Amino acid sequence: MTKQINYEDDIFFLLLILRRLSDGLKLTVDSEIFSAKIVDDILFIDEAVDKVYDLLKNSPSLIKKEENLRNIRKVKKLFIELLDDIIRKKVPMAYYFTDILDNLIRIQKKHSETDADIDGQLLKIAGKLQEGRQIVSEEEFRFLLSDDEDNGNLS
């Protein structure tokens, strides 16, 4: 039996977690209490975003694929910004993450690179949609109109 994946809810939940984490990082909280939880959340988001994106990428017949790719790209961009705030020490707790800074930079780079991959996927989808449209050329249009004019003259 195949498992049904609700991409919209998964992506929305990731977005909620990411926004709460981003808001929490703006606070001046006790790092001894919260730094381990924040690191766990960052690693969780990294892994979860990768899983959702891989599932999306490998689902060729998904109905709302374009919308879901756009939404996961939004989550990735917010995640990249959050990591950037930590790396550039724009948030109060950033100084407590210097020991994992290299790992955060690697994660940020990975998500930046897959962002370009999502753009490629979206261009493919747009190309397929364009191919599926029936466009009447000027010559076909004239032929169709001339056929109607011919029928009008016979009556």
Description:
The chain is mostly helical. The chain has one domain. Helices cover 76% and strands 0% of the residues. The chain has five helices and no strands. Helix 1 packs parallel to helix 3, helix 2 packs antiparallel against helix 3 and helix 3 packs antiparallel against helix 4. The radius of gyration is 24 Å and the shape is elongated. The termini are far apart. The mean pLDDT is 83.
Short description:
It is built from five helices and no strands. It is an all-alpha fold.
Give the helix/strand layout.
Blueprint: H1 7-25, H2 31-57, H3 65-87, H4 101-132, H5 138-154
Helix pairs in contact: 1-2, 1-3, 2-3, 3-4
Shape: elongated
Question: Proportion of β residues?
Answer: under 5%
Q: How much helix, percentage-wise, in residues?
A: over 70%
Total helices: the number is 5
Average pLDDT figure: 83
From the alpha carbons, calculate the radius of gyration and give it in angstroms: 24 Å
Major sheet summary line: none
Provide the succession of SSEs: HHHHH
Number of spatially distinct domains: 1
Uncertain runs are: none
Distance between the termini: 63 Å
Number of E-type strands: 0
Global structural class: mainly alpha
Oligomeric composition of the shown chains? single chain
